[in-house]
Write a structure and sequence with these properties.
The protein contains ten helices and 13 strands. By secondary structure, the chain is α+β, with helices and mostly antiparallel strands. It has a domain of 76 residues: 2-Layer Sandwich (hypothetical protein PF0899 fold), CATH 3.30.2320.10. The strands form four sheets. Strands 1, 4, 8, 9 and 12 form a five-stranded mixed beta sheet that branches. A four-stranded mixed beta sheet has the order 6-5-7-13, with helices on both faces. Strand 5, helix 10 and strand 6 form a beta-alpha-beta unit. Helix 2 packs across helix 3, helix 2 crosses helix 4 and helix 2 crosses helix 8. The chain is globular.
Length: 348
């Protein structure tokens, strides 16, 4: 199937369970005498090693790929557990799952070389003749640097202790992060010093096929694939606004082997196509989670940088609550501008 069946969605959303349990364990530990988060995890979820790994990270000497006998032999691509744990709730998460993911590892920046392919990079030569040495074009290299993706929220002690806490927190946290990731990753939105650009930024929309119906749908999908194929060949991912994603799945049939995902981050009547091989992202392997029962929090979605004079303000101590903050350093970019295409205002 080109996309998960409805019966599969619950299973895949449960992938975020270790993150939710790490948050709840951190909160519940603050209400125990010894405040030992590991004991809480062992007590409530004795077999969840992933949740334990999130809350037991230790400080170590920074590893670099140039340090022999330390990290040079171990260097590899890693995938942020948070970004890919959102599953079908986020089309962006599914796209990044197929892309090249690097770990920031507390580096200030990572330069990713984008080698520009050329048919002249290889040629036939005669016997005994010298092999040509090519100077590869790396002018399209991109630099990834830590950009702070963060959220904060509060939970009352009653909710933290509730038997339904895990389900409620997962429902709100996963859905909110999924919507936020798609809203930043996919659209034609410019980046700045704070956030990276959307993958469709600067991409000129293709002209939609007139006439409507199945022929228009087929021609639009073919045009999108044709625009991206020089970069990704047939390793393609389609992302569409929800109604159009359903139409593609209903009409394309089981022989349509390309993944199709829906995202409300795209405007109605919009379909995009990406080549994951040319998408690169860098992120921390794990988010940083911190909890406080004594914080004074400015309860505002656009908070002031200073608490003094801000309203409304809530004391966690006085309201018997816990305040949480979740921070993930992440950045992304396209190694080739031709790795994304989009068509707007489709007629089918």
């Amino acid at each position: 199937m080109p996309t998960p069946r409805p019966s599969d969605l619950g299973l895949k959303r449960a992938i975020a369970t270790p993150l939710v349990r790490a948050i709840l364990a951190t909160a519940r530990a603050s209400y125990t005498p010894n405040r030992d988060v590991r004991s809480v995890v062992r007590q409530h979820w004795p077999h969840d090693e992933e949740a334990l790994r999130i809350i037991t990270r230790a400080s170590t000497t920074q590893a670099t790929t140039t340090t022999a006998t330390w990290a040079a032999e171990l260097g590899q691509n890693t995938i942020s557990e948070l970004l890919i744990s959102l599953g079908p709730a986020s089309a962006g998460s599914e796209l990044l799952r197929r892309a090249t993911m690097l770990t920031l590892n507390r580096f200030q920046s990572i330069t990713v070389p984008a080698l520009v392919a050329s048919a002249s990079n290889a040629s036939f030569i005669g016997e005994g003749h010298a092999i040509p040495i090519r100077v590869l074009d790396t002018s399209k290299s991109i630099v990834l640097s830590p950009r702070k993706l963060a959220t904060g929220f509060t939970l009352t002690r009653e909710l933290v202790s509730s038997s339904n806490a895990e389900s409620l927190v997962r429902m709100v946290l996963v859905n909110s992060l999924a919507l936020s990731l798609d809203a930043q990753l996919l659209p034609n939105v410019a980046g700045d010093t704070v956030k990276p650009p959307g993958l469709l930024y600067g991409v000129t929309p293709l002209t939609a096929t007139a006439g409507g119906g199945l022929n228009a749908l087929t021609d639009d999908l073919a045009a999108l694939a044709g625009a991206v194929a020089p970069v990704g060949v047939l390793d393609l991912v389609f992302i569409a606004s929800p109604p159009e994603a359903v139409k593609i799945l209903l009409n394309a049939g089981p022989r349509f082997q390309f993944p199709v995902f829906a995202s409300s981050a795209l405007a109605a009547k919009t379909v995009a196509c990406f080549a994951p091989v040319a998408i690169v992202a860098a992120a921390d392997a794990m988010p940083d989670i911190q909890e406080s029962r004594n914080a004074v929090v400015h309860m505002e979605s656009a908070p002031s940088d200073t608490i003094s004079g801000a309203t409304p303000v809530k004391s966690m101590f006085q309201t018997d609550s816990s305040a949480f903050r979740l921070i993930l350093d992440v950045d992304w970019g396209l190694l080739n501008a031709g790795a994304a295409s989009v068509v707007a205002n489709v007629t089918w």
